[in-house]
């Protein structure tokens, strides 16, 4: 049995939370949903949450996961998710907390008691060890020859407790813990009140959908100056193979952009992939390579006949 077999799919359709009405950003807060989407639907997104113990670093990020507009549109189109208002969902959850919240608080308090008991026990062991070392020193005739290691083990802060001051369970104050995610998960508003689909470019979404249907993983390509970095498998196992840019079928491409894209892709050992929807499929389209000294073009017919892609590789480097 593989790890993927143990994945429990979320309740479908699950909510994708839209954070703002003006700057539309789409978040997922449930780690189980994020893992399920990555392993079964090739959806990556971008983690944007900082770690509680290291909020200033930006290398290892956590929840929430921000989805690209194309990813959110695809999930809604497939019936796997719906767009929910993040603000209204939080307000509703705060005003009427679910029943599980009391159980969660009790569990957190129990864990806090267990942690503080372990800390107190560790301090008591150190105190007993320090007392034993003091007794050894007093029983030794030549106290100057005591090993320096024993002296380092004795802390001036670990003073022995007086008799009758041993802490009891009732006197212990539980440690408070800050959860990294809301639990129970904040319930979204009913699906009938869902928001409209994200606004995406027709050519961009067509290219994204085509590559996704071919089994590719896609992440934002800002770091390489493109729209999508296209991976043949999970980015944890593979390097990206293409730098994808979408264009309308009749849109003119500046020659400098064409050459720069091909050279950039070849320079980072990737192909510069361009593609978009075909408006008139009946037109006769001639496919031929450019000058062999400049570039080599491979044409890929899309599974969807309305989308075509081209891969450009620079041949002069």
Percent helix? 25-40%
Beta percentage is 15-25%
What class, by secondary structure content? alpha+beta
SSE ordering: EEHEEHEHHHHEEEHEEE
Question: Cα-atom Rg, whole angstroms?
Answer: 30 Å
Strand order in the largest sheet: 6-7-8-9-11-10
- Taking all residues together, what is the mean pLDDT? 78
> Describe the biggest sheet?
6 strands, mixed
How many H/I helices?
Answer: 7
- Secondary structure: number of strands: 11
Envelope shape: elongated
Query: Gap between N and C termini, in Å?
Result: 47 Å
Low-confidence stretches: 282-304
Fold and architecture overview:
32% of the residues lie in helices and 18% in strands. It contains seven helices and eleven strands. Strand 8, helix 7 (255-267) and strand 9 (271-277) form a beta-alpha-beta unit. With 317 residues, it is α+β, with helices and mostly antiparallel strands. The chain is elongated and about 95 Å long. The protein starts with 13 loop residues before the first strand and ends with a strand. The model is unreliable at 282-304 (pLDDT under 50). 23% of the residues are buried. It has a six-stranded mixed β-sheet. A five-stranded mixed β-sheet has the order 3-4-2-1-5. Helix 2 packs across helix 6 (202-213).
Brief sketch in words of this structure:
Helices cover 32% and strands 18% of the residues. The chain is of the alpha+beta class and 317 residues long.
